[in-house]
Amino acid sequence: EVQLVESGGGLVQPGRSLRLSCAASGFTFDNYAMHWVRRAPGKGLEWVSGISWNSGGIGYADSVKGRFTISRDNAKNSLYLQMDSLRAEDTALYYCAKADCSGASCYSVYWGQGTLVTVSS
Amino acid sequence: DIQMTQSPSSLSASVGDRVTITCRASQGISNYLAWFQQKPGKAPKSLIYAASSLQSGVPSKFSGSGSGTDFTLTISSLQPEDFATYYCQQYNSYPHTFGQGTKLEIK
Known about the structure:
Chain A is mainly beta.
């Protein structure tokens, strides 16, 4: 059974950093691309970032480009999102998602339950 | 970036009804279009991929169609558990943009 467990969320002040992690199990992690998606309070889903199976293909939403960095450690079956220069508008529930294939043009099949990030002074 | 315009933003319907949600891409995306369902307090659930392929385990009352820039999600014979928010998403190229969502409510 595919399991994705996010961690690392919390309350952080504007301008500070936070690192999210996603522990994956139940599938061959290094065969699949992975994504981060968020949902801000009262808003819809927003795709944040994606990474191919070997980290060779990476993409970001314009709203986070230059501030967030996605990475993965295939040896540890883990996905990460380093979030720097956080803003109030980054407040959201952040989901980790497993793609259906290994590259960029892959959709999210399975989702974790999310980790909450609150950016406030 | 590719913009996804979803309509309507909200929809009221009755149990047993058939409803259609549309999604338009700002440029051609072939069939790289997925549909998701999200209920309050739950993670999104994949329904349709490649515009018209049904995700394993999803009932056949859900169907998708379209190619290029115009897509639809149809839900037949609505049941109480189908009332939720639905999103389209293009995954043709980064960034993988979502539509703004359609909240399906009971009339």
